[in-house]
Amino acid sequence: MLNESIKKLRKAHHLSQVELAKELSVSKQCVSNWENDNVQPSVEMLIKIAKFFNVSCDLLLGLETDNVINVNGLDETEITHIKLFISDLLRKK
Description:
The protein has 6 helices and no strands. It is about 65% helix and about 0% strand.
């Protein structure tokens, strides 16, 4: 699950394994090993990955079942706009 989460987030951010490795100060082989489920990142690295992608460790580990959007730092008007945008997207399905 963790390997899939890392790969999915990396691709969603249009990053290569080399680019993600550089951002996290690890080797490309490290990222490859995580994504291929050969090695698990340390707890410290898990936190670093979560912070980099602005997600929770629970989401990375597959413990969150709901999609969560972090709205910290946004005012009520901005949050309302996001809610309306999501509502519009859901109506299109």
